[in-house]
Amino acid sequence: MVFSSLEFIYLFLPPVLGIFLLLRWLRMENAIIWWLIAASLAFYCWWSPLHLLLLLGSVGANYALHRVLIRRRSRALLVVGIVGNLALLAWFKYADFLIGNIAAAFGGSHEALGVVLPLAISFFTFQQISFLLDTWRGQLEECDFKRYVLFVTFFPQLIAGPIVLQKDTIPQFQLSNFVSRTGLNLLVGAALFCIGLFKKIVLADGIAPFANAAFAAADGGQTLAMDAAWIGALAYTFQIYFDFSGYCDMALGLARMFGIKLPINFNSPYKALSISDFWRRWHITLSRFLRDYLYIALGGNRSGILGRHGNLLATMLLGGLWHGAGWNFVIWGGLHGSYLVINHFWRDLKGRYQLLAIVPTPIAMIGSWFLTMLAVVIAWVFFRAETFGGAVAMLHAMFVPSQSPLVVESVVLFSDAAFAVFAIAIMWIIVTAMPNSIEITRRYRPVIDTAKELSNSFGQRAALLWTPRPAWSVAMSAVAVVALIQLYRLNDMTEFIYFNF
User: Fold this and answer.
1) Which of 40, 313, 444, 472 could form an S-S bond across to 153 if both were Cys, CB 3.0 to 4.6 Å?
2) Using CA atoms, how far apart are residues 95 and 501, in angstroms rounded to an integer?
3) Which helix (H) or strand (E) is 353 found in, with range?
4) What is the mean pLDDT of the chain?
5) What whole-number distance in Å separates Cα of residue 371 and Cα of residue 275?
6) How far is Cα 57 from Cα 169, in angstroms, rounded to an integer?
7) Is the pLDDT of residue 447 over 60?
């Protein structure tokens, strides 16, 4: 079930929220938790009842191991738990990829196993690995079963994150959170949900056809004109931005309706002035997990300069592979790992030799932003293309003008190329000059303050600050109505991009 579907908006959310409010009025803490668990399992079951058994089996096995680790902090048991979780992920997500590459390496062929990728397996696997590690490190006390199940399955964050840690949500599953400031929670949650719905349905899905057309042509072996390639690449750059940003806003809003705050996962990454700044803003909880549970485990900064950069590159390669079983995802991760290594070298050189000291600050900032965005767009081409050849063809068209008489011009590829250019320009303004949803609602703390560097990163602009007043209610209602009208007009329901991961 998709947050932006009519089934979710009309059939799922109203009864789930209504019964929650009734149980809240009766002050029945255990009943609220079990009701949210039941709703979350129904939400997951809507996609595939059979895979619900996989989710429940994973939850049961990991909780049992948690109980054992509480009594006996055994490294061997921890390794068994981590390997078991990763093996499950590897089978469902990477079996065909690995077998196909082994067969290709030895000149053979194989039939696809046809393993169906369970929704959310990457997310609930990482969450449970972090839970076992925190248990083994003694960073949490024994957790009761119902709160653990809700921690893993809570539907606002189940399918595509954020990747929450036990310290993020388990302490919030208390009656005091469920019953406090209910009216304000509903209003803040509804505002975030409406903003996210608009981003997904109107902006992301609105620009998607231009990206789809360009990448389909490139993957199909057609030669694109430079303008058509750039329109396609930039269209996807904004499609994935507003798709993921919209999901994050809707997840935050849904959780807040039930009195729960989730960690920040998206913070205007296209405002970043360096690639390291980009990763402090894009999929923040994944970056946190990779840093705390992989990069540091590999040695982090403790291995000297070369070891540090090797650890960084390995972490990003695995982060790319986490997104999907394909070489294009590995290349995407490798590009970002290389970007980060170059960024660290440049930062050290600039600090040591006072490079760019004579360059005016505004010019330096614009140059940094431009290079960062150029690197990000190039990497997105590999992320989006279905084939390696398609990605190379897109990049070749973007940077090398073609003289072929068979070139596909933008006026041929797109029904309205001028509108695409106009839409891309408007989206540039939105992502670089406008406050994001966290900034707009920051008076009411829409996210958990997970780190000091995040608490001061939302900017100081107060031009657009949401308050629970009639004017804002009218504005959010208008945003929701526009999104719903567009939703009715769509021929096919589109999933969030991160549902595939």
Assistant:
1) 40
2) 15
3) helix 327-353
4) 89
5) 9
6) 22
7) yes
Alpha-carbon gap, residue 437 to 372, rounded angstroms: 23
Q: How far apart are the first and last CA of the chain?
A: 15
Burial 299-312 (b: 16+ CB within 10 A, else e): ebeeeeeeebbbbb
Most distant pair of Cα atoms in the chain: their distance: 73
Q: Containing H/E element for 447? A: strand 447-448
Q: Which residue has the tokens 């050189």?
A: 349
Closest CA to 466 of 436, 430, 440: 440
* Helices 49-71, 29-45: crossing angle, 10 deg rounding: 130
Q: Say whether 448 sits in a helix, a strand or coil.
A: strand
Map out the domains of the chain as residue ranges: 271-402
Pairing of strands 447-448, 262-263: parallel
Give bridge partners of residue 408 from the DSSP assignment. Answer: 224
Amino acid at 180: S
Q: Which residues are marked as active site?
A: 323
Is residue 224 within 8 Å of residue 217, measured between CB atoms?
Answer: yes
* Region of 299 on the Ramachandran plot (φ > 0 left; ψ -120 to 50 alpha; else beta): left
Q: Is 56 exposed, middle or buried (0-12, 13-18, 19+ CB in 10 A)?
A: middle
Cα 54–chain centre separation = 23
pLDDT in tens, 475-493: 999 999 999 999 888 766 6
Beta bridge partners of residue 266, listed in sequence order: 282
Per-residue pLDDT of 227-270, as tens digits, reads 999 999 999 999 999 999 999 999 999 999 999 999 999 999 99
Closest by Cα among 119, 54, 195 to 482: 195
Size of the chain, expressed as the number of residues it contains: 501
DSSP annotation of 494: P
Output the CA–CA distances (angstroms, integers) from residue 58 to 51, 124, 127, in the order listed: 11, 9, 11
